Amino acid sequence: MENAKIFETLERKVEKLLGRLRTLEQDNEKLKGDLGAARRSEKDASDARGTVERLEKDSEAVRVRLEKLIASLEAADEKKP
Fold first, then answer.
1. Can you tell me the distance from the alpha carbon of 57 to that of 48, in angstroms, rounded to the nearest whole number?
2. What is the pTM of this model?
3. DSSP 3-state percent helix, strand, coil across the chain (nearest 5)
C-alpha cells in the first residue's frame, strides 16, 4: 500500500513536470520566432540605413551640381549687356 502511494505521488510529479516541459517547449518555439523576426527587422533596418546613406550621397551630389549650374547661369547673366 505504501509503495502504491509513493508511485502515485511520483506519477503526479512526473505528469506535472511533463506539462511544464510542454509549456517551456512552446515558449521556446515562440521565442525562436520572435528572435527570427527581430533579426529580420535588424537586417531590414541595416538595409534601410544603407539606402538612406546612398540617397543622401546622391542628393549631395545633385545639390553640388545645381549650385555649380546656378553659379554658371548667374555668371552668364552678369555678362549680358
1. 14
2. 0.57
3. 95, 0, 5
